[in-house]
Amino acid sequence: MGEGGQNYGKSENLNGENYAPWSEDVGQCEEKYQVSREYGLSSSDVEKRRLIYGLNELEKHEGPSIFRLILDQFNDTLVRILLVAAVISFVLAWYDGEEGGEMEITAFVEPLVIFLILIVNATVGVWQENNAEKALDALKEIQSEHATVVREGRKISNLPAKELVPGDIVELRAGDKVPADMRVLNLISSTLRVEQGSLTGESEAVSKTTKAVSKDVDIQGKKCMVFAGTTITGMNTEIGKVHSQIHEASLSEEDTPLKKKLNEFGDVLTAIIGVICALVWLINVKYFLSWEFVDGWPRNFKFSFEKCTYYFEIAVALAVAAIPEGLPAVITTCLALGTRKMAAKNALVRKLPSVETLGCTTVICSDKTGTLTTNQMAVAKLVAMGSKANALRSFNVQGTAYDPFDGNIENWPVGELDLNLQMIAKIAAVCNDADVEKSERHHVANGMPTEAALKVLVEKMGIPSGLPSSASSGYNGVLKCSSTWNRIEQRIATLEFDRDRKSMGVIARSSSGKNYLLVKGAVENLLERSSLVQLLDGSIVELDQKSRETILESLREMSTSALRVLGFAYKEDLPEFATYNGDEDHPAHELLLNPANYSTIESKLIFVGLAGLRDPPRKEVPQAIVDCRTAGIRVMVITGDNKNTGEAICREIGVFGRHEDISSRSLTGKEFIELPDHKKAAHLKQSGGILFSRAEPRHKQEIVRLLKESGEVVAMTGDGVNDAPALKLADIGIAMGIAGTEVAKEASDMVLADDNFSTIVAAVGEGRSIYNNMKAFIRYMISSNIGEVASIFLTAALGIPEGLIPVQLLWVNLVTDGPPATALGFNPPDKDIMKKPPRRSDDSLISAWILFRYLVIGSYVGIATVGIFIIWYTHASFFGIDLSGDGHSLVTYSQLANWGQCHTWTNFSVSPFTAGAQVFTFDANSCDYFHTGKIKAMTLSLSVLVAIEMFNSLNALSEDGSLLSMPPWVNPWLLLAMSVSFGLHFLILYVPFLAQVFGIVPLSLNEWGLVLMVALPVILIDEFLKFVGRCTSGVGKSKARRYSKHKSE
Fold first, then answer.
1. How far is CA 506 from CA 184, 799, 834, in A?
2. Which region ranges are annotated with the description Disordered (predicted)?
3. N or C: which end of the chain has fewer CB within 10 A?
4. Burial, 40: exposed, middle or buried (Cβ in 10 Å; 0-12, 13-18, 19+)?
5. What's the CA gap between 994 and 1000, in Å, rounded?
6. Are 936 and 886 in contact (CB under 8 A)?
7. Contacts of 90 by beta carbon, 8 Å cutoff, 6+ apart
8. pLDDT tens, residue by residue, 413-439
9. 392 near 452, Cβ under 8 Å?
């Protein structure tokens, strides 16, 4: 019974008084909460209580404020150094401003612009962090807990746990997380245990009871309470170990492998750029520190603090431009947005590193039922016993939906059910936890689809004419026949299904007052524990070897037709349970608390029949299997089903060929475990698909362990509590969203919302695409930044006037690294993304070849920006483009490289030139031609840098693919981002105030022609490098294929 909220066992404030439900018996609790367990709360009650008690969720704590986030953006050494440089520049401007004149305002422009750009950078950083946080919050919302609740006499599945109110009647199953503090009203399970160590510190799962305890007992003593956040285990499992693993994982969230690689690369990059910055500063020492040699010793030192600060600013701005500080935030945003994209495709990624690991997956170990098949179960064939022990009767069952009126049973004796058919119907109805509801359009199953299909079979079978009609009165659901059997046969204990004995049993009390056991499960297992068989007329005879073979032959026949087969049996002689009525004080109750006793209780059974259920393969799975094969991913099917059924389905979906010999590739879990270690490893290394049938959770763990030891990256599916260790052990644990338990989901890295195998394959493709996109903008940002470093370094090394000032460098960094880098995260996947083998998980982020490409492109960026600066000073035209239209004077390269000696040159004069509406004259000082006169050359350098980096973003669309195969318009966001960046650049060029701030002037059409001519070759250079890369990788792949073929031979 829901307590609402999460008080962890404290007295609840109910109607203004403290109430301790654990100290009251069940009837008193129902009376206090004004609810009955059969009907639950009404809608009006729920609304009233929600207004009083609010939502059933923990109080949300506010995250850091926007102001705090902005301050955090300045928590970076380089940014702090730049701030110090800007402050010094501001102080110098203030000092110069005291002298008055026109320079008073313009002197403040540079430090103010640096401040402004840093604030804009911080704003972008905050926006990226907020985006990542919102995306993560959305994922958490998708993964929120749900509960099964009884309201207004109806069972509601998947109600969000936060909507529970005090008084709600909640149904819990093994593997569920408890959604609120609750009083136990009724125990259907005989072995209810709860793992509550995370709350109480208890090392083992504890048993629960319905009996009241003392009011002042401690939390461990509240045996009739379950607490929010704890887990229902049902029976002995490895859940305690899993919980501790999950808890440890939650305490230490590691950086993703990609982030670690980026951090390592960043450290190396920082060191290299630090050295380059120091060199740039030292090369320019002559401009702010000079001396004369007197008697062989340096004397008369002259130091310009203003110029020293200026070159210090250039060095620091160079570092800021070169190191992509915002990369971690961009990475997180890309991963988080990528996971939202995957969520839209029904793959809910619980941990961001999983996105990277998905792209490396080499083996997918998939369950069959519900993952490769639809899990829309329907009984297709019913086999009952005949008049003799070795004679069977077979009935074909029509219909494929959960609608009881969808088809009927061929040649069925309506209303005239013999005793054997009655017993089958009774077992199928009573030894069953499922339900079927009618929604607006169709019928849906609540619980296991297999069990729901059996209840639909019971409806199609009907009830014998001799049963009292009042038995189903008052029931208004769709399962009237099942309801009748459950009223006649009162269920008093449950022996839960487990994958070792592969059966489920219930102890029921008949209308005559006698207790007996009803069992359903795997046919082979039931036959092993059966000694008798019930015939058509209800008589019991010995189950001899001939009868066994007849039943097993029928099983094989159905299994090879891809039917999942369940057997039915019962037991009348239960001496220990003859007087058992569900009372916890009864001596027999102790036997039910230990699942190890179940096989003994379920022995000496009377076998009554079997049913074959059809679970057709999902129509999209065969293509997904083909895609896996093309992508170099092996598929292993691990199922608890019969070997013949598994093989039939595997042939149907393409894991095996239709007529392929699969004797070496299809084993039962038991056969595999019994192999020597070297043969196990050899079996798992076989090419093509592999099937493990009748597999248990421990077999899954062994398979995962061996695959990982051989270097495979393993994705493993699972749904049960006992699957959790295997899911945790796998590189990618994949839980089922529909059939999966909360424990399995919590242990997993990814949850399939639709339980569909093709969703896994789509997620692998998406994971590869996301990783490629991250590499795309890393490739773009780093190659562009290397270009900026090369530009400044070349300028300093050649001794020419600096072509880019700190303000411009920061602007380029913001404009070029911002919109295009973000847009590259929206690249569509390469056409051949699922035709390439998986990348190795330890592959370096940047290979030697890619680094070489970065350096080549970066060097070209440096040469182009410095080159156009030199061209303007030294050439009247270049490749037919006339540059003399503005009237500027030409100088030799030697003069440009030695511009610092200009004051010693004789007869050096220059003509005025125009730039936009401005005319620049140098009558007073011709050497000023290399200071204020460089404004046009600087504008050309800046424009080339912006243009070249825009074109370089097109290169980053694909690592190896040509722009001919992946044209720019495949990512319209990138074209939009380029347009925005160019638009911003035009803004500062053609708005006079902004042009003055950034120290640039408008360009003519001829000059823009030169800019484009110098910038466009960056595409051709990278296209050539990509071609070389494709050729060399093609040779590598060819060698690898030859080696692989030789190895297999």
1. 21, 91, 49
2. 1-22
3. C
4. buried
5. 9
6. yes
7. 108, 111, 112
8. 887 889 999 999 999 999 998 888 887
9. no
Asked if residue 998 lies in contact with residue 808, where contact means CB atoms within 8 angstroms, the answer is yes
C-alpha–C-alpha distance, residues 562 and 565, integer Å: 9
Helices 757-798 + 806-817 axis angle, to 10: 160
User: Which of the four pLDDT bands, split at 50, 70 and 90, describes residue 252?
Assistant: very low
Residue 464 CA to residue 801 CA, distance in Å, equals 103
143: which DSSP letter?
T
Q: What share of the chain is helix, strand, coil (3-state, %, to 5)?
A: 50, 15, 35
**Whole-number average pLDDT of the chain:** 81
With a cut of 90, say whether residue 920 has pLDDT above it. no
Highest mean pLDDT among 230-239, 240-249, 321-330, 885-894: 885-894
Max mean pLDDT among 224-228, 235-239, 830-834 falls in: 224-228
Q: Active-site residue numbers?
A: 367
List, in order, residues 6 or more apart from 183 with CB less than 8 Å away: 1, 3, 21, 22, 26, 29, 224, 225
Query: Is 50 exceeded by the pLDDT of residue 351?
Result: yes
- Per-residue pLDDT band for 11 (boundaries 50, 70, 90) equals low
- Give the pLDDT confidence score for residue 508 in this predicted structure: 93
Structure tokens at 351: 């941990």
The model's confidence at residue 298, banded by pLDDT at 50, 70 and 90, is confident
Read off the pLDDT of each residue in 232-258 and give the average, rounded to a whole number: 52
CA distance 753 to 344: 10
d(CA 649, CA 642): 11
What one-character DSSP code corresponds to residue 961? -
Tokens of 907: 């007869």
Q: Find residue 495's DSSP bridge partners.
A: 505
13: left (phi over 0), alpha (psi -120 to 50) or beta: beta
One DSSP character per residue, 245-261 reads HHHHHHH--PPPHHHHH
Instruction: Tell me the whole-structure pTM to 2 decimals.
Output: 0.68
Please name the helix (run of DSSP H) or strand (run of DSSP E) that holds residue 97, with its range, or none.
helix 77-97
> The tokens 């309506």 sit on which residue?
414
User: What are the φ and ψ backbone dihedral angles of 147, each rounded to 5 degrees?
Assistant: -140, 155
**3-state helix/strand/coil string of 686-724:** CCCCEEEECCCHHHHHHHHHHHHHCCCCEEEEECCHHHH
Which value, to the nearest 10 degrees, does the dihedral of the CA atoms of residues 43, 44, 48, 50 take?
A: 10
Q: H or E segment at 568?
A: strand 563-571
Q: Rg of the chain's alpha carbons, rounded to an integer?
A: 38
Token pair 């070792």: residue: 500
